[in-house]
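Suppose a colleague, Dr. K., hands you the sequence of a protein chain of 356 amino acids and asks what its three-dimensional shape might be. Before reaching for any lab equipment, you can write down a predicted structure in token form. Begin with the sequence itself:
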Amino acid sequence: MSAVAIQLLILALLLLAVPAAVGSIYAGESGGRLIFRWISGQFLLWAGFQAICVPMILRRCSLTSLVWLYVGYMGILLILAGALAAGRRRKAGARSSRPARAGGERKDGGGTLLWAVFWAVLVFQLVQAALMVFEDADDAYYVSVASIAESSDVMYQAHPYGAGETQLDSRHALAPFSIWIAFLARMSGMRTVVVAQVVLPLALIAMAYGIYYLFSLSLFPGQGGQRALFLIFTEILVLFGNYSVYTSETFLIGRLRQGKAMLGSIVIPFVLVLLFQMLRKMQEGGKIPAGLYLLLGAAALTGCLCSTMGTLLICMAIGLGGAFGAACYKRPGVLAPLAACCMPCGAYALMYIVMR
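The predicted structure, expressed as tokens, is then:
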């Protein structure tokens, strides 16, 4: 097996297999279980990376130390996920609910052609994202930071535009998405620029469409053809949305290696999916599971990982969603746990103000 194949295999494990395994910690009740587990698991991993990385940057630790500590965190989550999954299987016992669930999710009927079109367009977008890589002006900073961190083993201590040391940039050090890219490059052995501009966008674009699929499950329950049509129209908007360098479609298809594009294309949509699930629970009069609050807190931390703007935008989304839900369904009890979910954002915002 060639070195490139081994590097791609390691990245596939880090970006696909490990998050899907970690996501089994949350036994959600939504459809699309594998997709939901993959996305939720990645958010739990991102949240841990933010909580571990920022203190180490402020203490001027090396990237190697961060890698060892974060790999230990991943191992703990994998062990916990395995233990919880085994416990659920023992608890389920002789119940055979899987055949009924599989039959319920296969009501897609006449949507086979639409799903084929969706997958064809998605593959086309992924191929184009890999073949038509372009250098954005912001890459001169973000990709350079990741490349310097991987090669020199220091984080935000070397100037990305030239030689020599530099003072700590609080705005970027508190949102170290570039260091996560450096972690992937260090673990896989692949060049940082290739990870950032070729491999990573493929996984993140697929994750963005996975989030749109979760939206379609809520909008069109039991109607596979309409779900496929919804996703096809989404793909068309993305394909023809490059009328400006500032559109959300341009950020999704061409700039997902940058934290602010991640925030707008993946983090905020996933927060909206979770709020949709929370509001549906309120409407049904059911109890909101603790795992839902856990994922909202992880999404809040991930927003901070991507951009300092996330500290405000995530709090606004969670706060407005919780306030509307509490008022419309007379459930003021949800406000306290939702406020706890926003506490990480408040902490990082305060750190940013103090460090400036």
